[in-house]
Design a protein that fits this description.
The protein has 146 residues and is an alpha+beta fold. It has two domains: 73 residues, no CATH class; 64 residues. It is 41% helix and 29% strand. The protein has a five-stranded antiparallel β-sheet with strand order 3-2-1-4-5. Strand 1 and strand 2 form a beta hairpin. Helix 2 runs antiparallel to helix 3. The longest helix is centred in the middle third of the chain and has 28 residues. It is flat, with a radius of gyration of 22 Å.
Length: 146
């Protein structure tokens, strides 16, 4: 499980169901490293401000604004999603190049068709992830404010 701590910043109704918006702050791993003061990468990391990411999760009874929650993501779901996102356009790209080469098209048309079908592969992934159940399951666990 991949875990991250976030803070609920608002709860509202969306499309007939309650959702909570959780903000997570992404920080450099250099902050926890013992060599951060003597490392060049650590010096550069100090100049980059932390990034804020907003996640929309299903509301669970008892969630309140300003409470900390733990978001958990199954590693298998992450790997499957990454494979879908990266391999599908690549398969479209390579397949179109092989087919174009088989028909004896000039090299510039092979490259052009490969780029076009790689883009079609990205659109395909966007369509199936938007309209199907291929969504990452995020488990939310309320951390008691203390």
């Amino acid at each position: 499980m991949i875990k991250e701590i976030g803070k609920i910043i608002k709860v509202e109704m969306k499309e007939g169901k309650e959702v909570a918006y959780v903000e997570c702050i992404s920080r450099s791993a250099c902050a926890s490293c013992s060599s951060q003061n003597s490392c060049g990468v650590g010096a550069v990391a100090k100049t980059i401000p932390p990034k804020s990411m907003l996640f929309e999760v299903d509301y669970v009874k008892g969630m309140n604004v300003d409470h900390d929650v733990q978001l958990s993501l199954n590693q298998n779901d992450l790997v499957k999603s990454a494979l879908l996102l990266y391999l599908t356009p690549l398969i479209f790209f390579i397949t179109s190049a092989v087919i174009a080469n088989y028909f004896g098209l000039p090299e510039y048309l092979i490259i052009f068709s490969a780029i076009i079908f790689g883009g079609v592969g990205l659109l395909f992934v966007a369509k199936i992830t938007k309209n199907s159940a291929v969504k990452l399951k995020v488990l939310v666990q309320d951390i008691k404010a203390g």
